């Protein structure tokens, strides 16, 4: 059983502890899912999570659009990931895929959420392109205004839920200005003529991913989310909310790895004792536990800060995502090492965790990108502080001259 003492931390309210208990019970009864058909598994997971009411957390209620509770999203992802990576994936994409609609959609656009929040429609976030991953400002898929419509041409790739989503939120270049200021966001229903699934992408931890084609795809201008040229701002705002939840998923993987490592170390015979008798193994377990608590503190600090009304938590979310995903990779690697040969046997829990964790250090901003975000915030703050000191110095000199 995973450690849940963190739920007593001051970041949480009683509703969060009740949610943690409810999703833990659901996971024990429904996970892991049957992964033999990934598409079918994801569709069923979304349907089941919707039926159970958990998908209501992923998007605002169109009838009462209150802000998303990021702490609840993190608890959901942490718990689901600890039980089954595909369960986490299915839940997470319903939130990320509709994030732009939740945050910036019109009341009419938000009617889509009545379907995604109950698991009737799967959603997707279509941002990445073959030649632009973390460099969002350089996307090339074009959206040309034509009367009351936009016509889209280009490609997107590495799109989660690609091929099974009923709704895509697509970011395209509308050209109001160069770079980031010339991008807009659009709602594209999956059955829109001109949208094609060019390729299904196989990855080390099977998830539904695809490369999408847009060929003279025509949608009404009313499908644009927010203003023309606001797509970059919208995409960054969505990632600001959901980025720390990626760290939460990594935390779930790490907690499961520690559970498996402790179980192995205390039962695997070694001479007259067990692996856990070795000080080196004890050291590994201690490091794993320390890194898990440090990750949790960063994740729930970021989530709490956002829930308390902060307009942006780019720095906090970047720290949480980078540290938690990188440390989870190391924690899982230690768990594999403690398992020895069994750790690399196909189908072993830690072997599956080893494959699951790697992508989290890449998507929604690679680890190196998170470090750049943190550094730029730090340097920007230092620049503001230096400017304030210079201004104060000039004021003091002026006061001295007139005294």
TrEMBL record:
Signal peptide: none annotated. InterPro entries: Acyl-CoA_dehydrogenase (IPR050741), Acyl-CoA_Oxase/DH_mid-dom (IPR006091), Acyl-CoA_Oxase/DH_mid-dom_sf (IPR046373), AcylCo_DH-like_C (IPR036250), AcylCo_DH/oxidase_C (IPR009075), AcylCoA_DH/ox_N (IPR013786), AcylCoA_DH/ox_N_sf (IPR037069), AcylCoA_DH/oxidase_NM_dom_sf (IPR009100). Residues 14-115 form the Acyl-CoA dehydrogenase/oxidase N-terminal domain. Keywords: FAD, Flavoprotein, Oxidoreductase. It comes from the Bacteria. Residues 124-214 form the Acyl-CoA oxidase/dehydrogenase middle domain. Its cofactor is FAD. Residues 229-379 form the Acyl-CoA dehydrogenase/oxidase C-terminal domain. Residues 384-403 are annotated as: Disordered. Belongs to the acyl-CoA dehydrogenase family. This is Acyl-CoA dehydrogenase family protein.
């Amino acid at each position: 059983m995973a450690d849940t003492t963190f739920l007593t931390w001051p970041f949480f309210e009683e509703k969060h502890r009740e949610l943690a208990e409810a999703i833990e019970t659901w996971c024990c009864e429904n996970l892991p899912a049957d992964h033999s058909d990934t598409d079918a598994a994801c569709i069923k997971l979304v349907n089941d999570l919707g039926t159970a009411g958990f998908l209501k957390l992923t998007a605002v209620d169109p009838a009462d659009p209150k802000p998303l509770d990021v702490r609840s999203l993190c608890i959901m992802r942490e718990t689901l990931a600890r039980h089954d990576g595909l369960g986490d994936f299915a839940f997470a994409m319903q939130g990320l895929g509709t994030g732009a609609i939740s945050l910036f959609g019109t009341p009419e656009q938000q009617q889509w959420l009545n379907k995604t929040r109950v698991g009737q429609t799967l959603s997707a976030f279509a941002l990445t392109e073959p030649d632009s991953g973390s460099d969002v400002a350089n996307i090339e898929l074009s959206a040309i205004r034509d009367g009351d419509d936009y016509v889209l041409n280009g490609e997107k790739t590495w799109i989660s839920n690609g091929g099974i989503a009923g709704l895509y939120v697509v970011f395209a270049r509308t050209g109001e200005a160069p770079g980031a200021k010339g991008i807009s966001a659009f709602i594209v229903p999956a059955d829109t003529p001109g949208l094609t699934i060019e390729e299904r992408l196989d990855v080390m931890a099977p998830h539904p991913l695809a490369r999408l084609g847009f060929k003279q795809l025509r949608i009404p201008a009313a499908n644009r989310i927010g203003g023309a040229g606001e797509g970059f701002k919208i995409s960054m705002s969505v990632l600001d909310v959901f980025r720390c939840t990626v760290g939460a998923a990594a935390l779930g993987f790490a907690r499961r790895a520690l559970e498996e490592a402790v179980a192995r170390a205390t039962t695997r015979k070694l001479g007259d004792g067990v692996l856990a008798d070795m000080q080196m193994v004890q050291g590994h377990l201690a490091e794993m536990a320390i890194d898990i608590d440090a990750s949790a503190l960063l994740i729930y600090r970021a989530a709490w800060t956002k829930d308390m009304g902060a307009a942006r938590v780019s720095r906090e979310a970047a720290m949480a995502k980078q540290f938690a995903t990188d440390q989870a990779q190391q924690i899982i690697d230690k768990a594999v090492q403690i398992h020895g040969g069994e750790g690399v046997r196909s189908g072993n829990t830690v072997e599956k965790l080893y494959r699951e964790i790697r992508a989290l250090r890449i998507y929604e901003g690679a680890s190196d990108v998170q470090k750049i975000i943190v550094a730029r915030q730090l340097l920007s703050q230092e620049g503001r502080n230096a400017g304030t000191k210079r201004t104060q110095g000039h004021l003091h000199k002026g006061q001295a001259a007139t005294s």
